[in-house]
Design goal:
This protein has about 230 residues and is α/β, with parallel strands linked by helices. It contains 6 helices and 7 strands; from the N terminus they run E-H-E-E-H-E-H-E-H-E-H-H-E. It is globular, with a radius of gyration of 17 Å.
Length: about 230
């Protein structure tokens, strides 16, 4: 791959150590972006244009520290996430707090700290979930992902004058380590109607489109990739 030029755009991407976040970072690197990747664990992905920043987004101070250490970005992609499931009557308040902090509070803090430095015409993408419309056994997770939908649409309204687009990409059942994590809870992942799980690069390709020239007129949207699970 050719050496990057000084004009290469910068993308800040959270959750790059695995799954969808790792796939997004890989796609953007292939597209010529400089990627500042954020995660607790060091990613297996190696690339000369990837700068890894170790951070735990559950720490309220982390977003401010991240914002102070990254170059002015043209894009911010919020892909860090966690899934905990439980039926009503067995809900864990600690799980809800963890998901709220990671899916809503940390993204809000990070974008709030960076917004004045995001290039006009830049892009913000949040990785939400099809579950934000409601799924039995995932009420706490769904609530935090629904909050992401509302938050992103509000940001899209506020940033339209700067031509900064804000969208949610909402995957359905995706083959990731998070989905196979036994600590997620008792609800197993259901095979969607198309008979296969979504692969992380499929989500990454949509994010790449939104960050590219053809995505400049798409804002305030929730784009669902569900392999037929919504049918």
């Amino acid at each position: 791959m050719n050496a990057p030029t000084s004009g290469s755009p910068v993308a800040v991407v959270t959750g790059v150590s695995s799954g969808i976040g790792e796939a997004i970072a890989s796609r953007l690197l292939a597209d010529g972006w400089l990627v500042c990747g954020i995660s607790r664990r060091q990613p297996a992905l190696r690339h000369r244009d990837l700068t890894w920043i170790a951070a735990d987004l559950l720490d309220p101070a982390a977003p401010g520290d991240i914002a102070a250490s990254v170059p002015d970005p043209s894009a911010v992609v919020l892909a860090a996430g966690v899934l905990r499931t439980a039926q009503l009557g067995e809900l864990d308040p600690g799980a809800l707090e963890q998901m709220w902090r990671l899916h809503v509070d940390a993204p809000a803090r990070l974008v709030d700290a960076l917004v004045g430095r995001i290039a006009d015409g830049g892009r913000i993408v949040l990785i939400g979930s099809r579950a934000s419309a409601g799924v039995a056994g995932k009420s706490q997770y769904a609530a935090t992902k629904a909050a992401m939908d509302a938050m992103s649409r509000s940001w899209a309204m506020e940033l339209a004058s700067r031509q900064i687009t804000v969208n949610v990409v909402a995957p359905g059942p995706t083959r990731t380590a998070m989905s196979d994590d036994p600590s997620r809870g008792p609800l197993p992942q259901q095979l969607p109607r198309l008979g296969r799980f979504i692969e992380p690069p499929e989500i990454a390709d949509l994010v790449g489109f939104l960050l590219g020239p053809s995505g400049r007129s798409i804002t305030g949207q929730r784009l669902v990739v569900c392999a037929g699970a919504s049918l």
